[in-house]
Amino acid sequence: MTENQMRLEIEKLKAQKNIKIFAHNYQNYEVQQVADYVGDSFYLSKLAAEVDCDQIIFCGVKFMAETAKTLSPDKKVILTVEDALCPMANMISAQDIIDFKKEHEDFCVVAYVNTTTQVKAAADVCVTSSVAVDVIDNIDAENILFVPDMNLGNYISEQIEGKNIISWNGYCNVHDRVRKEEVIQKRKEHEGYPVLVHPECRKEVLDEADFVGSTSEIIEYATNSDEKGFIIGTETGVLHTLRNMNPDKEFELLSPSLICFNMKKTTLSDVYSAAAGKGGIEIEIEEGLRKNALKSLENMIRLSG
Ligand code: 13P
Ligand code: SF4
């Protein structure tokens, strides 16, 4: 089957089976093109709870599809590729949180959305990068343990006054590879271009940047700016939307290491197979676990604004 035929088949299957396709901003371009919704983790999570459909095909990584299922248990949720996993999500376990809470009863545990359902269930509140500062600022507790991303945790603690925020020692192996020297070098090559970075980057990189935000916030910032060129410090997938929305502006990737191979595993053919019921993996979550994880996600939505 040619790519065009596949695209047509996907459209037919979407209509026949009342499917909506969700794609994260880091997905391959051909996948983003057939998606009904493309966005950051917060946007896609909220949408999963609100959208009217029978089936969600999630093109992203496993924790994202699990989040969609937690928020929307009556829908069938399919992750396009079974081993599309975020390594950071496995840098903390639910048992780690249970052990920590035993020793530190006065701490509120905040889990980044890049975690397993078990970790969300053991935590008190969940956050995505776009709402993390607002949510944690609104939590009625002084002592916070943020898991698992130490770079995002340190960034949040610099933005909020009057809270004792400690971070777990996890990290994103894509964003954490970027170095300050790369920012300095790119600025020399592209004089005057603002540097926009994701908060999963190291502090030394964030300190050099002009703007720090989630994938969608970076897209929004560049789109609303009068500047003509930008240095982008997040995964290369965002460049598709940035260039489509801003054909008269230039975008330079901050570092060649900004490729998430897990996000790139999904191809157009995987989306077709999932829609045809011949591929992908259906997400199933035991009801007690789901309800506990849901509390953390609902707390996020309630405290986000
Ligand atoms: P966003 O919430 O900014 O989309 O980020 C998700 C992610 O995995 C970043 O690496
Ligand atoms: Fe996980 Fe990093 Fe990939 Fe985001 S970019 S999905 S945090 S490995």
From TrEMBL:
Alphabetized UniProt keyword annotations: 4Fe-4S, Iron, Iron-sulfur, Metal-binding, Pyridine nucleotide biosynthesis, Transferase
A Pfam family matched in the record: NadA
Pathway of action: Cofactor biosynthesis; NAD(+) biosynthesis; quinolinate from iminoaspartate: step 1/1
Cofactor(s), by name: [4Fe-4S] cluster
Gene Ontology terms: cellular component: cytosol
Highest taxon, organism lineage: Bacteria
GO molecular function, one term: 4 iron, 4 sulfur cluster binding
InterPro entries recorded: NadA, NadA_sf
EC assignment: 2.5.1.72
Any single biological process term in GO: 'de novo' NAD+ biosynthetic process from L-aspartate
Listed name of the protein: Quinolinate synthase
Gene: nadA
